[in-house]
Amino acid sequence: MTFATPQATTLLVLLLVNVQLGTSFTVILSDSGAPSTLVDGPQSGLPGSNNGARTDSKEQQAVYDIMRATGNDWATDIPNVCRGRWHGIECVPDKDNVFHVVSLSFGALSDDTAFPTCDPTQSTISPSITKLPHLRTLFFYRCFTNNPQPIPSFLAQLGSSLQTLVLRENGHIGPIPYEFGNLTRLTVLDLHKNNLNGSIPISLGQIPGLRSLDLSSNRLSGSIPNISFPSLSILDLNQNHLKGPLPIPLLTTNSLLKVDISRNRISGPIPDLNGPKNLILLDLSYNTLTGPLPDSLQNLKSLQTLILNGNPSMSATIPDNAFRGLDNLMILGLSNTNSEGPIPESLGRLTMLRVLRLDGNRLNGTIPPSFANLNGLSELRLDDNKLIGPIPFKRERVWEMGRKLRLHNNLGLCYDQKSGLGDDLDTLSSAGIGRCDTSKNVPASSIQHISTLNNGNMLISSTKSVASTHKINGALSRKILALTAIFLFINSCLL
Ligand SMILES: *[C@@H]1O[C@H](CO)[C@@H](O)[C@H](O)[C@H]1NC(C)=O
Ligand SMILES: *[C@@H]1O[C@H](CO)[C@@H](O)[C@H](O)[C@H]1NC(C)=O
Ligand SMILES: *[C@@H]1O[C@H](CO)[C@@H](O)[C@H](O)[C@H]1NC(C)=O
Ligand SMILES: *[C@@H]1O[C@H](CO)[C@@H](O)[C@H](O)[C@H]1NC(C)=O
């Protein structure tokens, strides 16, 4: 379809947002951007129904220039570019039935979406692009990779119309133009995977309607500026060289759905996050954040994914109430955060959990019996900690997790004979985990540990050791233990 309808424009926005999110989840943004200066004419878009329509001649010449600069000289043979019927150009007629270019896209995005490709060795962005005063969407994907060039600052002259700017995987070098602060109608700015350096320009704070900012996979440095965007849904700054504290104004924006600042050099604590009630994903992994986790994480009721792996300077105990009420949490990563002390019993109440990674820490005590409630768990990493005592899972769960259950390198994990877990389970035996009631299977260090805990009385029964290390949790723990025992008993009868 050559002639844009409002539906076509909305579809494109959806497509772009999906690209940014990968496959993890889908966010639907309606294309309710600032009203166009154009008067949208009849929306049939069918060939023949607009026979009298011309394309604005200055824009036509500009499109020729832009096509030539990307190695698409064939387009210059097309007498009316708005009727050229190639994917990647959209036009809208004004009240005098003159067509204006509203969208240009380049690059082989997918098999279904074949925009004109660029000659990667000599393509450039033609300055004639500034002669398209109605352009709302500009999209270049893998276009200048073998001809590294800065992002031209003249794009900022499209400020009165441009809503979506995507320059993705283009090999751009140099800074983000400071002039981009003049793109005040932008809702989507996507500069993913270039070689951009310098800092994030503070001028971007002048863009009031920005909904998606993706600057991921570049070489941006400096601190994240204290700017804010009242409608921001997606903030992706992952894989840069950003340092300094987490940006409080950005992170407390109410409209946020996804925040990824992973793989940078961000330091300092996680601030109180009282704003973003609808936040679904928070990834702050591989930075140098310090602990402890703030209790205010509890406010992020919609959170499905929280990833804090690889922040070795967190070095704190995991607060028992940090995740209280996060009933939608499916993925929780606290690997290599130097966390110490016990695993909170409350984690076992997050029944939606599918992936839980607590490996590479100094967690001690036992695996909370409440973990037996985590029936959706498909991956659990507890390896490289100081855990002791029985594994509170039924045989089926251990089978289902298979190699994604990682328990090796702990002080003294074992399985209870009554649980039905046997030596035939590869995952357990390869992790060096034996039966709780055979002293020869319990490493010497953990026997010592258990016996110290119980005032020198050597404990052999695992059930007793759980009860004693969980004394602090009192009746609840004992109830769960009793329930677990009943389940295990029924389970072993069934087998
Ligand atoms: C923004 O545009 C105005 C003119 O509209 C210009 O005077 C100003 O220098 C521009 N600012 C930037 C940062 O480019
Ligand atoms: C950005 O990279 C260019 C080379 O591509 C270099 O000349 C320039 O000094 C770098 N700027 C910063 C701020 O690192
Ligand atoms: C943002 O504000 C915080 C708190 O006022 C401050 O610590 C931080 O340095 C500021 N960041 C920048 C980049 O100015
Ligand atoms: C766990 O380690 C902490 C220090 O990190 C220590 O105070 C506590 O007694 C240990 N608890 C157990 C059950 O070993």
Automatic annotation (TrEMBL):
One of its GO terms (cellular component) is plasma membrane. One of its GO terms (biological process) is response to other organism. Residues 1-24 form the signal peptide. Keywords: Cell membrane, Leucine-rich repeat, Membrane, Repeat, Signal. It comes from the Eukaryota. InterPro entries: Leu-rich_rpt, Leu-rich_rpt_typical-subtyp, LRR_dom_sf, StomDev_PlantInt_Reg. It is found in: Cell membrane. PANTHER family: OS01G0149700 PROTEIN, PROTEIN TOO MANY MOUTHS-RELATED. This is Leucine-rich repeat family protein. It comes from Perilla frutescens var. hirtella (Perilla citriodora).
